[in-house]
Amino acid sequence: MNFIDELTWRGMIHQMMPGTKEQLDKEMTTAYLGIDPTADSLHIGHLVGVMMLKHFQRAGHKPIALVGGATGMIGDPSMKSQERKLLDEETLRHNQEAIKAQLAKFLDFDSTEPNAAEMVNNYDWMKNFSFLDFIRDVGKHITVNYMMAKDSVKKRLSGESQQGMSFTEFSYQLVQGYDFLTLYRDKNCRLQLGGSDQWGNITTGTELIRRTLGGEAYALTCPLITKADGGKFGKTESGNVWLDPRYTSPYKFYQFWLNVSDADAEKYIKIFTELTQDEVKALIEEQATDPGRRPLQKRLAKEITTMVHSAADYEAAVEASQILFSNNTGDALHRLDEDTLLQVMDGVPRYEVSIETINSGELKLVDLLTDLAPVFPSKGEMRKMTQQGGLSINKEKVADPYTIVTAEMLLAGKYILAQRGKKNYFLLIAK
């Protein structure tokens, strides 16, 4: 597999320094990508860079994931209008370990081959670097004129931002440039990967390497991912879509990919999966023939949910997704955990009922679904629809409207799902 060719057909190259392809064709090359450790989980905005590292390793090269412990204490001004919150060392170390565990699903850190992945933290070589040593050994090699010409600096100083730019942020590109110099010197790292907004910072690193060591280093960036409608990729009403199931459940993660537009699915399946060019082409043709079946979205959701979580999580997400649309899911409903159940039932009308009343052993369904929760406007209508087979409790048909309600009916110990007709659902919450 040729790394540049692979990224090209996937639409993952924005800019590339001359000589990059020749370097990669010549020998196994080490490249690094920086990851901001401001949280103890990656979100899907990080995945483009992570997939670049994954393809890089698949092509026989050596990937390094650099956790920006030092740069995370400063804050990258690129594409930002305000300075970010700074982190303490304990938080940074915790975030680093959590991020490495997530990256291990994409990269092979344990391989005995020369191209085994590595993780480094720039805090390790910056923490004892005094300010005087830094400006003497690093700062003297890069002119202020050179730094001022960078887009990330010009935008912040041009009046587009009311905040201006602190010296801390202005120095960011020098610190990132020193990372590249350090990895070039210590690990023979010849290439830095990143998003298109990082081009200025990356090329500062290549310039620093050239001026201090006379070395040749390279840069390659991927485009920033957008949505077809112009909205921001990876953002939902509830915020970022995280890789950690504590923040975004596998069900919600799966649903995010399942619900992308056709145009976005065609783009994302190239970027976020390992499917071959022929497999992607066949899926695109299938989608064009029968868009209603949404084969692109289904395969995209399957591939990425399995990669980030597991095959079992993917199967559970599919099963949960089908609960409202299938007639044979009573058992599946009982297997759902509370969080997933509530996510599946998002938007379904909810009524609270007394747990004591349910546990009394005297409550009839006809009373529960009319007097206590207005699922039906009247007992007569409730009886009539039950006789016609139009009432289900927890996806199981009910034949007798006078059935006694028991605690055994409760899902996750506190919920009852009532279904009136084919499409009307109501969630009863016992409190």
Which residue ranges are poorly predicted, with pLDDT under 50 across at least 5 consecutive positions? 79-83
Q: Helix share of residues? A: 40-55%
> Judging from the principal axes of the Cα atoms, what is the shape?
elongated
Number of beta-strand segments = 13
Span between termini: 58 Å
Rg, nearest Å: 27 Å
Share in β-strands: 5-15%
Query: What is the count of helical runs?
Result: 21
Provide mean pLDDT, rounded: 90
- Structural class call reads alpha/beta
Largest sheet properties:
6 strands, mixed
Kindly report the spatial arrangement of strands forming the biggest sheet. Answer: 1-6-5-2-3-4
Explain how this protein is built.
The chain has 431 residues and is an alpha/beta fold. Helices cover 45% and strands 13% of the residues. The chain contains 21 helices and 13 strands. The N and C termini lie far apart (58 Å).
